[in-house]
Amino acid sequence: MLLIPCPNCGPRDETEFHYGGQAHVPYPENPSELNDHEWSRYLFYRENPKGIFAERWVHSTGCRQWFNMLRDTVSYDIKAIYPMGARRPDLAAAPAGESGTASLAADSTTTGTAAPSLAATSLAATTTAPEGATK
């Protein structure tokens, strides 16, 4: 489980929150002038980076307030929490205060580091892919 630090309520379990998509997506200046292709780009196309990503979240079962979060999409580490409408913080200047954590337990579904061991299975002994297999 992810422990998300709500700016109003403090650290809470991720089940109390809902993801709101990519943060800092600007609304079109003249929406009536957009064609269908431009509208579709605004509505449906979002970044999908590997690494630090700015996201919107709402504490739906707590204070019901929206906030932005910088989160590493690889490790799930929460780098910064900041209010809606605020500029994205510079990570070099971001305070190292309260941050979220991902569970490292063996049954964790939030990290890729706690995968089951294959040491005792026959799959671990296979060193090459079968003929015709693709990478």
UniProtKB/TrEMBL annotation:
Residues 109-135 have a biased composition (Low complexity). One of its GO terms (molecular function) is sarcosine oxidase activity. It comes from the Bacteria. Residues 90-135 are annotated as: Disordered. GO terms for biological process: tetrahydrofolate metabolic process. Coiled coil: none annotated. This is Sarcosine oxidase subunit delta. It comes from Pseudarthrobacter phenanthrenivorans.
